[in-house]
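Students often ask why we bother predicting the structure of a whole assembly rather than each chain alone. The short answer is interfaces. A chain on its own may look different once its partners are present, and contacts between molecules only exist in the joint model. In this exercise we take two input lines together and write out one structure for the complete complex. Read the inputs first and try to guess which parts will touch.
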Amino acid sequence: MENFDEVVKEIAAAASPEALEAIRVQVLGRRGSLTLAMRELGALDPEQRRKAGAALNVAKDRVTAALTEATARLGRSALEERLAGERADVTLPLSFDATGRIHPISQTIDEIVAIFGEMGFAVAEGPHIEEDFYNFTALNIPPEHPARQEHDTFYLPDRPDGARLALRTHTSPVQIRTMQAQEPPIRIIVPGRTFRCDHDATHSPMFHQVEGLVVDRTTQMGHLKGCLIEFLRAFFGLDDLPVRFRPSYFPFTEPSAEVDIGCSRKGGELKIGAGGDWLEILGSGMVHPQVLKNCGIDPAEYQGFAFGMGIERVAMLKYGIPDVRAFYDSDLRWLRHYGFLPLDIPSLVRGPLS
Amino acid sequence: MKTTLSWLKTHLETEAALGAIVDRLVMLGHDVEGVENRAEALGPFTVASVVSAERHPNADRLKVCLVDTGKTQVQVVCGAPNAHAGMKGVFAPAGTVIPRTGSLLRETVIRGVASRGMLCSAYELGLGEDREGIIELPEDAPVGMPYASYARLGDTVLDIKVTPNRADCLGVRGIARDLAASGLGCLKPLDATPVQGCFRSPIGIHIEDHSACPLFLGRHLRGVRNGPSPDWLRSRLEAIGLRPISALVDSTNFLTFDLNRPLHVFDAGRLTGDLTVRFARPGETLLALNGQEYALDTEMTAIADKAAVRSLGGVIGGEATGCTEATTEVFIEAALFDPVRTAATGRKLNVASDARYRFERGLDPAFVADGIEIATRLMLDLCGGEASEIVTAGAVPNWRRRYVLRPERPATLGGLEMPPEKSAAILTALGFAVESQPDGQLIAEPPSWRGDILGEADLVEEVVRVKGYDQIPAVSLPRETALSRPSLTPAQRRAELVRRTLAARGLVEAVTFSFISTREAELFGGAKPELRLVNPISADLDAMRPSLLPGLVSAARRNADRGFPDTALFELGPLYRDDTPAGQALAAAGLRAGHIVPKQWRKKGREVDLYDVKVDALAALAAMGASVESVQISADPPAWYHPGRAGTLRLGPKVLGAFGELHPAVIDALDARSPLAGFEVFLDVVPEPRSGRAKPPVHLSVFQPIERDFAFVVDDDLPAETLLRAARAVDRKLVTEIRLFDVYQGAGLSEAKKSLAITVVLQPQERTLTDAEIESFSQRLIAQVEKDTGGQLRG
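Now the answer. The structure tokens for the assembled complex follow.
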């Protein structure tokens, strides 16, 4: 009988799928040595046939197993060889598909909306080209009021009907438009563009304000304090931010309050928080009865509060932006540095506001 | 409004420390913008004399000075060119902190010579900008005296921001009165004892229009001797930044700042006859005390004698009748002028005087007589002489009015529970006449100096203000609903989606001004006369923008000038079509400049083109929920776009926006660089998506989709959309998608032809398609395209 040990060795040594196939045909093929030996069994007597048959079966199993093993071995080495040839330089640099940025003004407005939204405020808007009546007169600022001169108003040509037109100097005219259009209760905030003809290191002729207005039957100054303290602490992310209300004057509120937040100016560096010093941040007050009357709301029945705040100012304080003029320069380097990622959508529920 | 602590204490009896006074002022609504205590910082500086000043042995420019400090003699090395023996100067010993620099002065050796102190310049003391030479004091300056005392810098100066409603606090006494009402001391009595007149005024007074000047009191003083004011008066005026002039003028300034009672003194010797308050006549002029000549008009309140206008009521006096050193007789004017007219006159002539500032805010109508008596006494004290009887024209206007304060209002409006008797006490302390009613109501009559009190809300403010805003308990706004409701309207929400979508597409958000130059506005179809500012900040910013694109082009140009030519910017904001609220529209615009992709190892660099911004525009529309498939694109862009490389986006009759490469002439005119492609979409025009949250059922076929490619040869000016529309129309049920994957022109095609190749996706719903069905579809498609476009299947 042929020595199949040799065959098994040859199989184990086969270097290619072709060599392996040749051995298989030689041994297990139709005219293969093992096939022929099997065929010859019929000529033997039963005793011999049984013995030889068993031996041949063992041999066939060994050869088949060796072939399977060798096929797998060759497959593995072929793959290894292929992988070795497919090496790439994983350090080659790629740029992200450039992501844009959200302007700090937009992001700050979204943050302000997120906080006041939780307190039930809706966002209202109004025209930038405003009639003198809405910007001043209805807000208790008659034509010769000294406050008018402090506003540095941009004017447009009068309308043919004589109406004096100006670029709104504050967002407060939207108070008037809202109260004229809507029955109390009212809770709105009005973020938007405002304009004053003033241009220097700390003023831009266009800037942004957010106005707030609450009108109902019961809102009093304690609510004004509560609402603004909660807003300022949430906005600056400081639960212990000191907030101070001190009397002031605005023609359209009575009583009026200026609001300061705590800060420190140690070493010439401004830092928001408890620090023994104060920083003026917004103006507020109870809506003047005359303003309610001007809008057709009975001041004997309704009252409320209003406030106004500069958006650039709070954005600069919160994000450490030094120069107000840079907001409108559209320098890509500045926008990329101070801007926000598009999916960073402010929400009180989802987490801290930036 | 500035005052000093000691000045304040002439009206206020108080033990309170400076810090407590400042805090109280702030909490009363009088913000303290500055507290300057110069004496403290200047404590170690003394008057000293220079005994000798020799040249430094080792340095030409330095001197070695021996300084007599009054206690000892100290050697100082000094670099000032004006240091010389025998002079008096200001000396700081080693160990002193220099106010201006904050640095510590040390004992040192300068080029081998010891220096144990310093002779100071005004700059180093923080008193001026002169740093060249050291301060040189008069010969009689007493050696050893603290310099702050010598220079009368000893007092603390308070700079108080008085709100426009509190005209009464534009005098030191008004501030003292508010502090006293809040319990911080007592208001000292004011002596306004009348001065007995001893002759009849030779000058009479008349008022022609009582609305312009309701009251005018006058008084003649004779035998006066005008000269410098005494030290106490000079130092007070200097401390608040006023230059002392002469006793007569300083007296009026003192009354203005001390009691908020502006006065005018005429040199009576230079007046001709009686004084009349009347409107100025056309052509009249006034050479004012500030040296300016003003042309007057008939709206201005003039005070004239027989010869000419001598003064503008409440605004400024005339040079010709002003007091001088030679003045021996004066006429004092104490009057009330209409605030509105005074403000208008001052504004027209651009005169900002202390008098105007006060008259336009409203003065105490009941204090005119007291004011003239106090002024008379002061002037007689300072200048001698005797006073006439007072002459009067007009009358004190009626200022009395009463308001009710309901007992609950401090709490229900001001948020602070106040028993009526406490409210009454505060109002009384502020000078109100208060009547308590049995039901707790207070009837309050504001004092004559509080013209700002006009209703119950003002009374609440007074009560709460004096009690302290810090006493008001903060209360959270009650929630109207248990859960938050949306703050944004659907339109506002859509704008937010557009903003964040464009940023996610790689565009960086810019915010640019609402106004641009007229030239820019004209290039973008704007610059209507009604949208041009009357008083622009500069000629570059004088027209309300008709489009957001010019602002973005300027931004791209600025970035390119800085060395960053590849920009991708967008803005979401207003444009202005006319001056009505409806003319203001919300737009989203984007601008891509330079390269869309910089060159990289993996991708070739490519310049921006119209297709980049077309996708941006469509993405913005899609973000709003618009159905992009139904948007029509026509090749008729607005004039600022390239006529052949731009399009208009339409939905039926509505124009949603436009996109494309900018017109080369516009790019040139704006000094920008090509390539520049932009888009603008109008958010208000895009229809809101149909409401209803439930989505229609979706059929998910179990059969695999089949793709078939077709290439058609068509005329090269055929819009691709025509072919796509034809292909879509063949079988809207079966065809789920058509992709145009190749546009080819060149070899193998005749000159005026192009090949458009599309992949058509067929989605069988009920069973697999047979070859025959697919073939039949193909034939129908080829026929339809041929019919609609004239295109032939490419062989």
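Check your guess against this: Chain B touches chain A through 101 residues (CB under 8 Å).
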